[in-house]
Design goal:
Order of helices and strands: EHHEEEHHHEEEHEE
Number of strands: 9
Strand content: 15-25%
Largest sheet: 5 strands, mixed
Number of helices: 6
Distance between the termini: 42 Å
Structural class: alpha/beta
């Protein structure tokens, strides 16, 4: 008999500790033990982010995927990477951010600002499935300190993005002799985040990807 397809993870503490051990083989060992086949075919590559230099703490090189499941699986928060688990619409989370009820990191805000553009889950699933084979570029934000104390998170394609970004932290923090208003009015191509406020993009992204729009998305922004 073929193993059953499943996305659920055993809830015993011992099993969870093994998956959280961060060994590349831990998940497959657990799947063999439980006679499960991880449904990797439902994972569609969505984006990849590298933590900018100058950020305190650990830097992360993280990949994000979109997946479709027939029903909500049982989930639980771990004790290190998350505080709680919720199933919510992207626009609801962005609304909480705008109202000051939650804090989002720039990659979270950027990706939720993309996801809010899909009027239905079926449209997102189809888009991500058809787009994934086109590949993607790693997103590497460069933090720019402005003369008025504001910060911008610059991304590839922005007029202010450096030609040779410092991925190793070997140079000093990028400083620009502009205020936020000057940096906005003096640029034609935007691909940036106003740190903690909004993700802005007016360029065509490579690999067929969709651009973020500020919350709340207008009807004309929906796909």
């Amino acid at each position: 008999m073929a193993p059953e397809l499943s996305c659920s993870i055993p809830s015993t503490p011992r099993k969870r500790r093994r998956v959280k051990a961060r060994r590349p083989t831990a998940l497959m060992e657990l799947a063999r033990e439980r006679r499960l086949v991880p449904d990797v075919w439902s994972l569609h590559e969505w984006s990849a982010w590298l933590t900018p230099v100058g950020v305190t703490g650990h830097r992360h090189d993280a990949a994000f995927f979109v997946a479709s499941v027939p029903e909500r699986p049982a989930c639980s928060a771990d004790s290190t990477e998350s505080e709680r688990v919720e199933w919510r619409r992207p626009a609801e989370v962005l609304a909480d951010q705008a109202a000051g009820r939650t804090v989002l990191m720039p990659p979270q805000m950027y990706e939720l600002s993309r996801l809010q553009r899909f009027a239905a889950w079926s449209r997102l699933e189809r888009f991500s499935r058809e787009r994934a084979p086109l590949g993607l570029d790693r997103m590497f934000p460069v933090i720019a300190q402005l003369s008025d104390g504001n910060q911008l998170g610059l991304l590839l394609g922005d007029d202010l993005y450096p030609e040779s970004p410092d991925t190793l932290g070997e140079r000093t923090v990028m400083k620009l002799p502009h205020t936020l208003q000057e940096a906005s009015s003096g640029s034609r191509r935007w691909h940036r985040s106003h740190m903690g406020k909004a993700s802005l993009c007016n360029i065509q992204l490579p690999h067929g990807h969709i651009a973020p729009v500020p919350y709340p998305a207008r009807e004309a922004d929906m796909v």
